[in-house]
Design goal:
By secondary structure, chain A is mostly helical. Chain A contains eight helices and one strand, in the order E-H-H-H-H-H-H-H-H. Classes of the chains: A mainly alpha, B alpha+beta.
């Protein structure tokens, strides 16, 4: 039974995965992959946030994230497990961002290189262990007053911009900015306290 | 405004340019401000994750789609089981029905619809959405002739095509006009236009026409209106810009590294277009190693990005060029879509970096950018469907023995193959995951547990000529195989991914679908297939 064409364009070369180290001594690639996923997944949203802060355009942001993820996967063999994976990932992301900015002057970077480098250091310095942040935020949100919740809902649930929120709530634009700023800051303090072990005494 | 408020405004994308510059300087100079920024970004992202309304996940393209792959595996496993166990007709008639076209509402559209549904007074906006959806789903083989004409003539041509092909009367009454805008409505021949897009939605052609007449496209069903924009740079001054395109922007024209010698015999002639004196027969500007040269040779015109030029004995000139753009082709492609490059304006596309170097007026640059956006490959989605099967080596069908892989040309052949498989003793369908990605982006499938039966595969699809090429690797229990499969149209592929060292042979069956940004299938056809289709 003829089920295919003889001149197949398929090429098959047994080899290692491109750029992915298989260590001598029989270490299993699958094991490496699973380890990678274990450390990558908890850091994924953090990495997205970091890249998101540096790139204005959503498409470009997603492209950088994909590129950084691929590089992390490929270079995982060189990762020093005694270091923070998040810091390593941000380091790779910073290099990719700066490279993109160098190659294409129109690349929508939010900040100049020196600011990006300063921010990388700041993100590293303020890193907390992955996990727990979402739970802490959920707890902190419970104590946000009704007015604040409405403001957060308009901003995040409905993705409205400042002027629209101001019109809806009958506030000035400046008041909206100040309120959002205060809410975020209070939530941040509350999250930090919870992550550091103690219950939040602050009412955001 | 204090630092916290400035950061907050930044997070809401509402800083003025002056505030943005102030923030950048502040963050670079003050580590405490930078740390506050970092914490705020984290809180903002967490709030977004916690509160943002979910969007339809269908087209959310992500490389790390393990969970999706597992869920899809269950669905496809069942459908494959059903397929394998259904009675097979003995006639030679096609066994399989074509898979129905899946209409997927793009997430952005759905999210917008949901928001608008909440506002009862915005019923007209829903109509506009529906209209936009129809325009985005109406594909024309050609959206124009590529000829230079005024907008009236171009729209007449376009609407005539639509009328002819709109069998379902989806776009009945479609008409066009001008809408009062900030800018002045152009006269009939103010901006010549052209579109020459193939296999693109009507909306894409309309957007491209709008940018050519310096207007926004406004949809007021059943009318499309061009609303002139003001404040655009209309100078005729030629400026240089490098635009990043999709890898297949002009892929059909190819490229090569070029090295040649001018011996003054009149076969090749080098002219430096940057030099008003007409440049340079045998004398390129050594101080400008990256300057662009035009090469006229045997009736073809090329642009060369020359990196090395030196005189050799005998007064000949050795040119080593690492960028070669085919001006006549890329120029034709651009001109056919409204970028009318008049010398000394030029375009050069480098396939190795997918960069388009343009020396053109601001207007032409705007049109080129719009063209790149409309033809941008990454906005398409690739749906890769796979089936992983294991067969006892001793039970391998003769056609499968000793083969690394082969292409299955039609759906019918694929069904016969599936039937053969179902009758093969000792065959196990391990799993059948599918994964979504975009051209140029890696899609990874991670199946099963660590160890002997663990399977891990990565595919990097790319449009190449008439094929969708899948390159990647598969690992079975740590034993790796590099894959390189090119598929066109309805083709599928069977690839052996194990080492052949065990008593179980492992194969992966691959098929792909290319989807437009609106979720519509896009046919990927070789030139032969296109001819046959015509």
């Amino acid at each position: 039974m003829k089920i295919g064409i003889p001149q197949s364009p398929i090429r098959k070369i047994p080899c290692q995965l491109s750029g992915f180290r298989v260590k001598k001594g029989g270490r299993n690639l699958m094991a490496d992959t699973n380890i990678f996923l274990e450390v990558f997944r908890p850091q994924e949203s953090e990495l997205r946030a970091y890249i998101g802060a540096m790139v204005r355009d959503a498409h470009a942001r997603e492209d950088v994230f994909q590129e950084v993820s691929r590089t992390l996967w490929e270079k995982f063999g060189t990762f020093d497990a005694t270091r923070s994976f998040g810091a390593w990932a941000r380091g790779v992301a910073t290099l990719k961002l700066l490279e993109a900015g160098r190659k294409n002057a129109r690349f929508p970077l939010t900040f100049p290189p020196e600011t990006i480098e300063a921010l990388q250091a700041a993100f590293d310095a303020t890193e907390s262990p992955p996990g727990g942040r979402e739970e802490a935020l959920a707890e902190c949100l419970k104590s946000v007053p009704e007015k604040g919740r409405r403001l957060l809902a308009l901003r995040y649930e409905e993705d409205r911009r400042g002027p629209e929120i101001a019109r809806t709530l009958g506030l000035s634009l400046e008041a909206v900015h100040k309120s959002l700023s205060r809410l975020r800051q209070q939530l941040e303090v509350c999250i930090r306290r919870r992550l550091e072990g103690g219950p939040s005494r602050e009412n955001p | 405004m204090n630092t916290t408020e400035l950061i907050s405004k930044h997070l809401d994308h509402e800083t003025t340019p002056a505030e943005a510059a102030e923030l950048a300087a502040l963050l670079a100079a003050d580590p405490e401000a930078a740390q506050e920024f970092a914490r705020s970004v984290r809180t903002d992202a967490a709030l977004r994750r916690a509160l943002a309304a979910p969007v339809a996940p269908v087209l959310r393209t992500t490389r790390w789609r393990w969970a999706g792959a597992a869920a899809a595996a269950a669905v496809v496993l069942f459908s494959t089981w059903a397929l394998l166990h259904r009675p097979v007709e003995k006639s030679a008639a096609p066994v399989a029905k074509k898979e129905p076209v899946r209409r997927i509402v793009p997430p952005r559209l759905r999210a917008k619809s949901a928001a608008q549904l909440a506002k009862a007074d915005e019923g007209r906006a829903m109509d506009e959405l529906e209209f936009r959806h129809k325009l985005a789903h109406f594909f024309l083989p050609k959206t124009g002739t590529g000829e230079r004409m005024d907008l009236n003539a171009a729209m007449d041509w376009l609407l005539a095509q639509v009328k002819e092909m709109d069998h379902d009367k989806d776009l009945a009454g479609l008409d066009w006009g001008w809408k009062e805008g900030d800018g002045e409505t152009p006269s009939k021949t103010a901006h010549p236009v052209a579109t020459n897009l193939s296999d693109r939605p009507l909306l894409s052609a309309l957007r491209l026409l709008a940018v050519q007449v310096d207007a926004d496209l406004v949809l007021e069903p059943p009318h499309v209106l061009f609303k002139p924009k003001a404040g655009l740079d209309q100078s005729g001054e030629l400026k240089e810009v490098t635009l990043l395109t999709s890898p297949d922007f002009l892929a059909a024209y190819g490229s090569s590294t070029f090295s040649t010698t001018s011996n003054g015999a009149g076969i090749v002639r080098f002219v430096n277009p940057a030099s008003p004196s007409g440049g340079v027969k045998g004398e390129p500007a050594q101080s400008e190693p990256k300057s662009l040269y035009r090469l006229d040779s045997q009736g073809m015109t090329y642009h060369l990005g020359v990196t090395k030029a030196e005189k050799s004995p005998g007064d000949s000139l050795n040119i080593k060029a690492d960028q070669v753009g085919y001006l006549s082709d890329s120029g034709r492609e651009l001109t056919g879509n409204g970028v009318f490059l008049q010398p000394p304006a030029f375009a050069m596309w480098d396939p190795s970096t997918a960069e388009l170097a343009l020396h053109a007026t601001p207007h032409d640059q705007r049109v080129a950018k719009a063209l790149i956006e409309e033809q941008s490959g990454p906005r398409e989605t690739v749906h890769i469907m796979s089936k992983f099967v294991s067969i006892q080596a001793a039970s391998l069908p003769p056609e499968w023995s000793g083969r690394d892989g082969w292409v299955v040309n039609t759906d019918e052949e694929f069904q016969i193959l599936m039937t053969t498989m179902s009758q093969t003793r000792g065959l196990n369908l391990l799993t059948a995951p599918s994964v979504m990605t975009r051209p140029g982006q890696l899609a990874v499938v991670n199946i099963g547990q660590e160890g002997k039966n663990g399977i891990f595969a990565g595919f990097n699809p790319e449009r190449q000529g008439g094929y969708l090429r899948l390159r990647g690797s598969a690992s079975v229990g740590g034993d790796n195989t590099e894959l390189d499969v090119s598929l066109a149209g309805p083709q599928s592929a069977v690839v052996r991914i194990d080492s052949g060292q065990t008593d179980q042979a492992l194969f992966v069956l691959l098929s792909t679908r290319l989807l437009s940004p609106d979720g519509m299938p896009v046919e990927v056809l070789t030139d032969d297939a296109k001819r046959r289709k015509r």
